[in-house]
Amino acid sequence: MTRYLLHRLPSALLVLFGASVLIFLLLRLVPGDPATILAGNDATPESVAAIRQQLGLDQSIPAQYLSWLGDLVTFDLGRSYLIGGQISDLVGRGLTNTLVLTVTALVLAVVVSLAVSLASVLWPSRWLNTVVAAANTIAVALPTFVVGPLLVLVFAVAIPILPSGGVPPDGFIARPDIAMQYLLLPTICLALPVAAALTRFLTESLRTELTKPYVLTARSLGVDHREIVTRGALRNALPTSLTVLGLQTGQLLGGAVLVEAAFVWPGIGQLIEQGISRRDYPVVQVLLLLAVAVFVVIQLLTDLAHAWLDPRVRIGGRS
Q: Which UniProt keywords apply (predicted)?
């Protein structure tokens, strides 16, 4: 497994390096001068020039990139001059809230997809398949910016039993019961499309496995259907399902931006919106590169889990 990880690391680092170059150059193509915005409309040319020098914008593009890359390597993310505060503090607070939301939604999506997929295979019936297929279609078809307001209208306005948005005032650990009330609506909104996609793929994978020769052999030997599904078909369907889970996790992080806006959740999504609207280049650069890094790490962890479940992947990775 270690050799397989070392084999995959160079490509992951190359992706991060390429992403850093593209992000840095693309943001330089955006119209507008951060120094002029920061100085204000009535600022003198001397003030704008001083701010440009303070931000390092008077240097050449390669020099600016190397300076930014060096700061990233030393974990010196710099300061946000437009939003205000250290970028590390802003990212730390936003990332904590986003991770709590996305991890909770991911756990909910995995649990729901496992339960529904196993139920569809263990107790196959026409009405159950119809209900599951209809629910999956609705969950995938309805975007999060529609589901979010609907959940708020039903459970926070019409039936006021849950908060309409925001984060727990006492944090997520001090009062878990209160925290779950704030988490429930955005978690459901974020988890629905991911759970539907996972359910559809895992159900079809299990049904495909049940047509394999080893299943027919097990049935001829009198092995119970439940044991065949849980110990045989499910294990063999997991490697490919993990790949889909990795892709859906990336989609989950992308959908978190809209969900955070719908439920006033102060996470990375809101921070990205603030950075872009105020043209706070240092903040946007860090957040975009962080998003790419998260995608790369998720893909790497997915590949490692796939290799752990399927030794053929590790053998291919060493060749």
A: Cell membrane, Membrane, Transmembrane, Transmembrane helix, Transport
